[in-house]
Design a protein that fits this description.
This protein has 689 residues and is mostly beta strands. Among the domains are: 64 residues, Carboxypeptidase-like, regulatory domain (Immunoglobulin-like, Sandwich), CATH 2.60.40; 66 residues, Carboxypeptidase-like, regulatory domain (Immunoglobulin-like); 68 residues, Sandwich (Immunoglobulin-like), CATH 2.60.40; 274 residues, paralog of FGE (formylglycine-generating enzyme) (Alpha-Beta Complex). 10% of the residues lie in helices and 40% in strands. The chain contains eight helices and 52 strands. Strands 3-4-1-7 form a four-stranded mixed beta sheet. The longest helix is centred in the first third of the chain and has 21 residues. The chain is flat. The termini are far apart. This is PEGA domain-containing protein. InterPro entries: CTDL_fold (IPR016187), PEGA (IPR013229), SUMF_dom (IPR005532), SUMF_sf (IPR042095). Keywords: Membrane, Transmembrane, Transmembrane helix.
């Protein structure tokens, strides 16, 4: 009843609903799809606007422009001839027919308007080379490609230098422009001959024509000769060769006419025993045997052979044209007597390098110059030249000396340098004190700690300057040198000893003088600094400390303590020291001693020592060669010591005008330094062998 009444009231009652799938919710109300389209369009518009606002205008220009295809890898919009693209890096590729593809990177910056210029490289062209004559070498830009005809050769586009070469033709050269882009081009070359035709005949005919020594035809005939200066010749048996230098211009023929050939000379190969004979032909000197002579054909000619010590040989000879023959002539010796007196008797005798026996003997030798040599181990070899004479007996005496005696005989007792310095020869090895002890005993009054006793031996002969080097002599090495003055007293006069020189300057003076006289320098130098020495060199040097000590102290079998002897002080002027007149300069003097000089004296102002050497113990102290060291006590014997190769300080020997104490005036006194001082100079020495 209720249902029916409800229907009548007009109300609609929904029916009960159950979803097909248990638990599924009932569908919601439906939405229209236009909303989503509008949203998508809005987003797209926003993205487009964002792109347009951030994109930059880029113009890409390609050379050549025709048919070029440009591909930019990345989001961009064409805009006329430009594209719109955001800043960044993009792959860019360009292609065009006939060009190599271009792969590059496009960089777009923040600038509003940008332009990129791209140039494409054309592909190679294809060339065909043809020449007349064929077979020419093709060189493109200096590189050989092959022989013509040459087809389908790939050549890079652009200008090139082309050369074609063929034997006996002038080079063909031309600059060509290759189009490229795989286009085909043909090059044709007409090579011009590089020769000229030369006509030649001879009298008689039938001669072989040569060009540069090679056969090229026979007379009469026409030969093709390359351009330039060429040597052309004619050869015919029995006739002398004919040659001429011909200037040939390509393409210009020449006619040399008829050449009259001269009958060939006869050839005589002449030798003699012994060889070296002088040869004349019809009185004209030709040379010495063995030699080859050319004789006029069919003519009698006179030859003469002569050699010192042999009989003269003469004969007449006739040869036909072109004939060759040999003549060997034995010369007859002329002999002279040579008597040799030889001692010691066991000495060997050589004549011209060949041993002929020992001791005294008489020889018959040809009458020309001979070299006679007499030798014996341990003795100096003697040699002389002698020419024996027929009918005259000659005598030569050979008295051999020991090698040491021979060395001494060859050496001069004194030498004079290019500066006028005198050096005396000393042979300490022959003296009683060839071995001696340097330094001083600890018990000796005035002895200093650096005067350690040190055994040495001197064997090498040496030269030592008799005086100290003067200012005048040193200024030939250094023209502006000034030795200075002390309290108004000059040290700079010409004949005073040079002072204010360092050890380096003294050693460099020695090298300069060695080079001036052509001697091997003793000291080694690098960049103007002395760095060491060569003990085998015979150039000038400073004396070694051992040589100085021997020269100053050795007196027979004794060693001097002072230059004047053993007692102190000296009783008479013997050397230049700090005497009574030097008190205001030195402040200390040798009481009661007067030598007459306030500072240094002219060299050789006092008597020399027993060896003829001046001022060794006074005037100025002297640099020596040795690097300064304090020797070890009880050291072993040293022979010809020279000290170390280099060091910071060097030994100074001898007293000077500024010294007066007992310790300083002793000959064993040692000082050292390296810089110049106003009381230190030097003298020079050198080895004799």
């Amino acid at each position: 009843m209720s249902d029916t009444s409800g229907a009548r009231d007009g109300a609609i009652t929904p029916a009960a609903f159950e979803p097909l799938t248990p638990g599924a919710k009932a569908p919601g109300p439906r939405r229209h799809p236009l909303r989503w389209v509008l949203i998508a369009l809005g987003l797209l518009f926003a993205l487009l606007m964002a792109f347009l606002l951030t994109a930059r205008s880029v113009l890409i220009t390609v050379t050549p422009q025709s048919d070029a295809s440009v591909d930019v890898g990345g989001l961009h919009l064409p805009f006329g001839e430009r594209i719109l693209i955001r800043p960044g890096h993009y792959d860019l590729s360009v292609t065009a027919p006939g060009y190599f593809p271009l792969q590059t990177n496009l960089e777009v910056t923040d600038e509003d308007s940008q332009e990129v210029l791209l140039t494409l490289t054309p592909l190679p062209g294809r060339l065909h080379f043809v020449s007349e004559p064929p077979g020419a070498r093709v060189l493109l830009d200096g590189e050989e490609l092959g022989l013509t005809p040459l087809e389908d050769v790939e050549v890079a586009a652009g200008p090139h230098d082309l050369t074609l070469q063929a034997p006996r033709y002038q080079p063909w050269e031309q600059a060509i422009e290759v189009t490229g882009r795989e286009q085909r081009q043909q090059v044709q070359a007409q090579l011009l001959p590089a020769w000229a035709e030369v006509s030649i005949t001879s009298e008689p005919v039938g001669a072989t024509v040569t060009v540069a020594g090679e056969p090229a035809g026979t007379t009469p005939g026409v030969v093709e000769i390359l351009q330039g200066e060429q040597e052309i010749g004619l050869r015919l048996p029995g006739y002398a060769d004919w040659t001429s230098t011909l200037a040939v211009t390509a393409g210009e023929p020449q006619d040399l006419g008829s050449i009259t050939l001269i009958p060939a000379a006869g050839i005589l190969a002449l030798s003699s025993n012994p060889a070296g004979a002088n040869v004349t032909l019809d009185g004209e000197y030709q040379g010495q045997t063995p030699l080859t002579l050319e004789l006029a054909p069919d003519k009698s000619q006179r030859i003469h052979l002569s050699r010192p010590g042999y009989r003269r040989h003469s004969e007449t000879i006739t040869l036909a044209a072109g004939e060759s023959t040999e003549r060997a002539i034995r010369l007859q010796a002329q002999l002279g007597e040579l008597r040799l007196v030889v001692s010691p008797a066991e000495a060997s005798v050589k004549i011209n390098g060949r041993v002929v026996g020992q001791g005294s003997q008489t020889l018959s030798l040809p009458t020309f110059e001979h070299r006679v040599e007499v030798s014996l181990p341990g003795y100096a070899t003697l040699s002389r030249r002698v020419t024996p004479r027929m009918g005259i007996e000659q005598q030569l005496d050979f008295a051999l000396q020991t090698q040491q005696a021979a060395k001494l005989a060859k050496l001069t007792p004194e030498i004079t340098t290019a500066l006028g310095q005198t050096l005396k020869l000393f042979t300490p090895g022959d003296s009683p004190l060839s071995e001696f002890t340097m330094g001083a005993s600890r018990r000796e009054s005035g002895r200093r700690a650096n005067e350690v006793l040190r055994p040495v031996a001197l064997q090498r002969m040496f030269y030592l300057q008799t005086t100290e080097v003067t200012n005048a002599q040193f200024r030939q090495f250094q023209a502006n040198h000034n030795s200075g003055q002390v309290e108004g007293n000059s040290l700079n006069q010409e004949h005073q000893p040079v002072v204010a020189v360092s050890w380096q300057q003294a050693a460099q003076f020695c090298n300069w003088l060695s080079r001036k006289e052509g001697l091997e320098p003793f000291y080694t130098q690098r960049e103007g600094i002395v760095t060491g020495f060569n003990p085998d060199a015979l150039g000038y040097r400073l004396p070694s400390e051992a040589e100085w000590a021997w020269a100053a102290r050795a007196e027979g079998e004794a060693l001097l303590k002072f230059p004047w002897g053993e007692d102190f002080p000296p009783t008479a002027p013997v050397e230049n020291y700090a005497d009574n007149t030097s008190a205001y300069v030195t402040g200390r003097i040798l009481n009661g001693y007067t030598d007459g000089y306030v500072v240094s004296a002219p060299v050789a102002s006092f008597k020399p020592n027993s060896k003829g050497l001046y001022d060794l113990g006074g005037n100025v102290a002297e640099w020596v060669n040795d690097v300064y060291t304090i020797p070890q006590a009880n050291g072993s014997l040293e022979t010809d010591p020279l000290g170390g190769q280099s060091g910071d300080n060097y030994v100074v020997k001898g007293a000077s005008w500024s010294l007066s104490k007992l310790a300083e005036l002793r000959l064993s006194y040692r000082d050292y330094g390296q810089a110049g001082r106003d009381d230190v100079g030097f003298r020079i020495a050198r080895y004799a062998e």
